[in-house]
Design a protein that fits this description.
Mean pLDDT: 85
Oligomer: single chain
Radius of gyration: 27 Å
CATH class of the largest domain: Alpha Beta
Shape: elongated
CATH topology of the largest domain: Rossmann fold
Helix content: 40-55%
Amino acid sequence: MDQNSFTAPVTLREVAERVGVTQSTASAVLNGTRSGTRVSEKTRIALTEAAAAMGYRPNELARSLTSRRTRLIGFFAHFQYLSAENGFLSELVGGIQEATSASQNDLVLRSVPDESSSQRIVDSLADRRVDGIVCLAPQDPTLVQQLGQAGVPVVAVVDQSPFVPSITVDDKEGGRLLARHLAERGVQTVIYRDWFAPPISGQNRRFGFESAARDLGIRVFEGRRLREHDLAEPLPEEIDIINRHGRVAIACGSDDGAYATCNALAALGYQIPDQVFVTGYNGVPVHFTPRWDLTTVTAPWRRVGEVAVEALLARIAGNTTLPHLTLPVALRVGGTT
């Protein structure tokens, strides 16, 4: 047989002819279409057995047109790209995938060109190719509002939105946990390193940390604002604070920033934690063998993804009264404090 030849798929008409029924009857049983035809149990069994024997595969497009469901769940992250090396995204997407699979749906990663405007993004995502969208839009918090106004079932994750159901973690409490831990270690001075344009979740982490630090008598100084690929060398003013104050800690808004900070300090000869404490935030697995056993806040990002899909499916089913859900975090004490 020619290696390029193929067998044409079995059609619904061929199955119907074998059983001796109309095509609409076969479609009602095998594709779930609403033909209004009453089908006996005997005929249902005959059609099911014939379809299996002949290798017939139901027409998913026909099913979706009838049910108005594609059984596809979309995930959109307003990042330039989704990297498997990003432990936070890997955990979040892993949870979303597990929940879509458990509910017999499929996951579709949606993307748009980097330079797209909010309206272009909304127009692209509102094309009904998926039943609903789990949305992570830290740089554009109004995007989920626009999607909701466009009639798209949507659930926000990580950063809470006042416009749609949101699944987040208790970032403020995470910040408080870190401040209390550092106070227990005798820290009185902290340099806080945040990201450029931190999202709502990052702002909440810092608010929780600084409010608890103030109550505990800890002075907090502004540190270097990090970008994704910064080497994180200490600024001159940070070096001055470290050298003038005893028991100094550098608190970072993410684990990535904390690892980079540890490396930068070590390159300058500082001992961690003997001379400087360092803390992170997220507590997710990393794709490399870390040099540092980081003190951090662990957040259940995989569970966030699972709960987001559960909430989205409820919203698709018509539940419009879903609350915001905030999942708990925990402190993990490592070797950097």
